[in-house]
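User: Fold both of these, please.

Assistant: Here is the first one.
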Amino acid sequence: MKIQARYLMPGDQTGSGETIVSVSAGIRTPRGKVEVTLERVGRRRMSLWGASTVISVRRAAR
């Protein structure tokens, strides 16, 4: 499914195989952007994405 970055949830898996750990928009985050923490094979990284950027993800049934 395709989802805007602002609506990503922890546990979603991106097309590149990374798992979403958290999505936030804090004081330091520029307007219209979200900070996304991604994890793959035990390594985490933080990325800054446009809030309306459409991301292809696999979401587990909840």
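And the second sequence with its predicted structure:
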Amino acid sequence: MRPSKEELASAAGRTIPDVVGPGLAVLFCGINPGLYSAATGHHFARPGNRFWPALHRSGFTPRQLAPAEQDELLAYGLGITNVAARATARADELTRDELVAGAEVLAEKVARWRPRWLAVVGVTAYRIGFGRPGATFGRQAEALGRTGLWVLPNPSGLNAHYTVDTLADAFARLRAAQVSSG
């Protein structure tokens, strides 16, 4: 069921649990939960978000999962977290300090769970949070310990520069690197 306007409004500031566990090949990292995701408790839940179709079309999952099936990702060696935990209507509502603090918390999660790859979906959040103003999409030169860093385009429907197919191509490049390093 779709959340009501009241449920969406009351979701501001909420957090949702990470989908994490040991032995992850890739830990996908959103910028922060949107209100729809916070209201439902599922990552990338808003209709029109292209994360789930891109994940499937790139070969990470054998079928397209629904946001409510997010826990099934663990069986594929995949997880989800966010740079900033606080739900907002738009990612640009986050402050620079929130993104920097979130990147520090994210580094702690990576140290704990030790995924092979951390894939941040949002180059601007990555640039600000990790202090890498010149970062571009793809594999990053630096790593977090033994975890490789990859930056993907944001799959939000608000990111009109990318279609599901171009997002799937970007995700597929990560998948190829993950398989070859794996």
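Residues 137 and 151 are 5 Å apart (CA to CA).
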